Amino acid sequence: MLNEKVASLLNTQVNKEFYSAYLYLHFSNFYSELGLDGFSNWYMIQAQEERDHAMLFVKYLQNNGAPVVYEAIDKPAADLKDKMDPLTAGLEHEKYVTSLIHTIYEAAYETRDFRTMQFLDWFVKEQGEEETNASDLVKKMELFGSDSKGLYMLDSQLGGRVYSAPSLVL
Ligand code: MG
Fold first, then answer.
1. pLDDT value at residue 52
2. When you count CB atoms within 10 A of the terminal residue's CB, does the N or C end of the chain come out lower?
């Protein structure tokens, strides 16, 4: 049986991951309206990944006999005006998600819940990659975004991203 606090934090994370998906759909839509279909594609796939993350937490709770409660998902908070805005908001959001994962890990550690710690290991690594990707996008936009050819190349590159299922299977 999962510790009550750990189970509650894991259930909250389901909502947070769905919120991430919702936020990235908002970003995807913003870029679609700007005509930057590559950026739009990148965030559409990012949203799919976040949904996968949510379902991994659902599956883990189910596998461990803990209740799953689906709460309301907040409206995406980012106010987007410039093509850089989703990228910086995305980086900040991923740092926040990292802090959430670490908080769950801490609770699992305190209760010697080694199974949950092992489950979360994948997410700790994943968050490292998410932050790196988000930070790279900010840097690339800073470098190439003000030049129309550079922006076109960047958009084309991001348009090539294809969805792949998460490497973690429960
Ligand atoms: Mg996630």
1. 97
2. N
